[in-house]
Automatic annotation (TrEMBL), chain A:
Keywords: Cytoplasm, FAD, Flavoprotein, FMN, Nucleotide-binding, Oxidoreductase. GO terms for cellular component: cytoplasm. Residues 25-69 form the Rhodanese domain. It catalyses: sarcosine + (6S)-5,6,7,8-tetrahydrofolate + O2 = (6R)-5,10-methylene-5,6,7,8-tetrahydrofolate + glycine + H2O2; sarcosine + O2 + H2O = formaldehyde + glycine + H2O2. This is Sarcosine oxidase subunit beta. It comes from Streptomyces roseochromogenus subsp. oscitans DS 12.976. PROSITE patterns: RHODANESE_3. InterPro entries: FAD-dep_OxRdtase, FAD/NAD-bd_sf, Rhodanese-like_dom, SoxB. It is found in: Cytoplasm.
Automatic annotation (TrEMBL), chain B:
GO terms for molecular function: sarcosine oxidase activity. One of its GO terms (biological process) is tetrahydrofolate metabolic process. It comes from Streptomyces roseochromogenus subsp. oscitans DS 12.976. This is Sarcosine oxidase subunit delta. It comes from the Bacteria. InterPro entries: SoxD (IPR006279), SoxD_sf (IPR038561).
Length: 406, 93
């Protein structure tokens, strides 16, 4: 295995137009989800009078901060369906967008360290297979074959008792994904407007008719929120509540190393996940900070715990150095599943609650959200993820079931 | 790391505590009369402000008592901590 060079960027990625006074659709947030939504609005539905408004810079939110793990081995049917749709789209997107964003299907291992982990993992493998998702149960010696640097000795504090493996899972260069989607959306006529914060909503009765922004008022027929950690703040401005809580989630990277880590390894029980980026950094993450927060940083004790877990699992990392840590703000729902669909405000749609794991869903989130905005109706894949599930009780409880966050 | 003051034990590291979410969420007075939407509000909906937030913490490795903290979720500044029977400093909301 050799480190792959990063591809050259095309010179021209997108225009930087002034906002117009009106659009057919306004998307709030130019993260991966907002960009994918705009792309599919134009491509699948022919709606091109679209603006994507971004308060900072394009894809500078969670899109630039995540650890890029892509997989579809979720337990429940509804989740498996939408994440597997995403994975299938990922498999075709580099060619479709004509942009090599280094989607690398190196597989994902989810380790089991307790008898209950083992049972849960085997159950999930069976559920995945019934849903057409590739999944295997591996015994410790097979885990060691997939990832030789992993310590599968029975003499560790939490021995590896096995793991689930999804071979089609992997990672991608997240910035390049955003730029690839942005370039195509721009070519199809979408206005991508950076430095433009949405500060309020214009309503006619219960119907949204425009947005107030830091760059003036923009009229529009439909609004789609794709603001991840800030969805709760925007909903409040629009006059309704969302069952989401915003939490800081952090990640870190080491300096560059020779390619040593052939797959993605995640452990729910000792809570760390590790992959090696294309250039050679070890990319690591853990869980969210428990408290609500909008600061893009996390607590130090979370790093201490994840490093302890990482060094026990990968003794070879003992002398690696942490080069950089950062945080993002993720919006978590009570059932750890996203909310995609209509809101109490007519013509205002929301895509949020992807929590710690929405990067992998980017194409499917965009695909289904575009459908909902274009037709006013849910797509079969996002219908179960409607806001009213909290009233009807039809929750999709992926807490724990989904094989760790992300 | 946050430095949080337990009203009984004094200032301690964040790692001594566990988080309990929004404070001052009373159990419904007439549960039998609640609609499904009102139950959903009580069970699943919590405030999520970017700014001052009254929240519950428990001093799990200390006195193991619950108390409330007023904390700014944007700056992480701990503005006040107080016993559960005390009102939110500066009035409600
Ligand atoms: C440390 C970390 C690790 C993660 N690891 C993974 C992983 O390995 N795999 C995975 O699948 N997911 C992962 N995630 C989750 C994933 O990043 C998110 O679920 C996903 O990026 C959310 O969708 P988005 O890309 O559109 O959000 P964002 O990129 O956050 O986009 C939202 C945008 O909205 C903008 N915005 C907010 N408010 C306003 C406003 N008022 N006006 C205008 N614009 C506004 C923001 O500036 C932001 O750019 C991780 C997240 C973090 C923080
Ligand atoms: Zn105490």
């Amino acid at each position: 295995m050799t480190a792959e060079p990063l591809p050259e960027h095309p010179d021209f990625l997108w225009r930087n137009p002034e906002p117009r006074t009106s659009y057919d659709v306004v998307i709030v947030g130019a993260g991966g989800h907002g960009l994918a939504t705009a792309y599919y609005l134009a491509k699948n539905h022919g709606i091109t009078k679209v603006a994507v408004l971004e308060k900072g810079w394009l894809a500078g939110g969670n899109m630039a901060r995540n650890t890029t793990i892509i997989r579809s081995n979720y337990l429940w049917d509804e989740s498996a369906a939408i994440y597997e749709h995403a994975l299938k789209l990922w498999e075709g997107l580099p060619a479709e967008l004509d942009y090599d964003f280094l989607f690398s299907q190196r597989g994902v291992l989810n380790l089991a360290h307790t008898l209950q982990d083992v049972r849960e993992g085997v159950r999930r493998v069976n559920a995945n297979r019934l849903n057409g998702v590739d999944a295997e149960w591996l015994e410790p010696d097979e885990v060691a074959e997939v990832c030789p640097i992993l310590n599968v000795s029975p003499r560790t504090r939490y021995p590896v008792l096995g793991g689930t493996f999804q071979p089609r899972a992997g990672i991608a260069k997240h910035d390049h994904v955003a730029w690839a989607l942005a370039r195509r959306a721009d070519e199809l006529g979408v206005d991508l407007i950076q430095g433009c914060e949405v500060t309020g909503f214009l309503k006619d009765g219960d119907r949204v008719v425009g947005v107030e922004t830091s760059r003036g008022r923009i009229l529009t027929g439909r609004v789609g929120l794709a603001a991840a950690g800030h969805s709760g703040v925007l909903a409040r401005l629009a006059g309704f509540r969302l069952p989401v809580q915003s939490h800081p989630l952090q990640a870190l990277v080491s300096e560059l190393h020779e390619p040593v880590h052939p797959t993605v390894v995640m452990s729910n029980h000792v809570h760390v996940y590790v992959s090696q980026a294309h250039k050679g950094e070890l990319v690591m993450g853990a869980g969210v900070d428990a408290y609500n927060g909008y600061g893009q940083r996390g607590s130090f004790h979370v790093i201490e715990r994840q490093m302890a877990a990482a060094v026990e699992l990968f003794p070879v990392f003992a002398r690696a150095h942490v080069l950089r840590t950062w945080g993002g703000i993720v919006d978590v729902t009570p059932d750890a599943s996203p909310i995609v669909g209509s809101t109490p405000v007519e013509n205002l749609y929301v895509n949020c609650g992807w929590g710690t794991g929405g990067f992998k869903a980017t194409p499917a989130a965009g695909w289904t959200f575009a459908h909902t905005i274009a037709t006013g109706e849910p797509h079969p894949l996002n219908a179960p993820f409607a806001l009213d599930r909290f009233t009807t009780g039809a929750l999709i409880d992926e807490h724990g079931a989904a094989a760790v966050a992300h | 790391m946050l430095l949080i003051t337990c009203p009984w034990c004094g200032p301690r590291d964040e790692t001594e505590y566990h988080y309990g979410g929004q404070a001052h969420v009373p159990y419904p007075q007439n549960p039998a009369e609640l609609s499904d939407a009102e139950w959903a509000e009580y069970v699943f909906y919590r405030d999520n402000p970017k700014g001052p937030f009254a929240e519950r913490w428990v001093h799990s490795t200390g006195c193991r008592r619950w108390f409330n903290v007023l904390r700014d979720t944007a700056t992480y500044e701990v503005l006040a901590s107080y016993r559960p029977d005390e009102p939110r400093p500066g009035g409600n909301r």
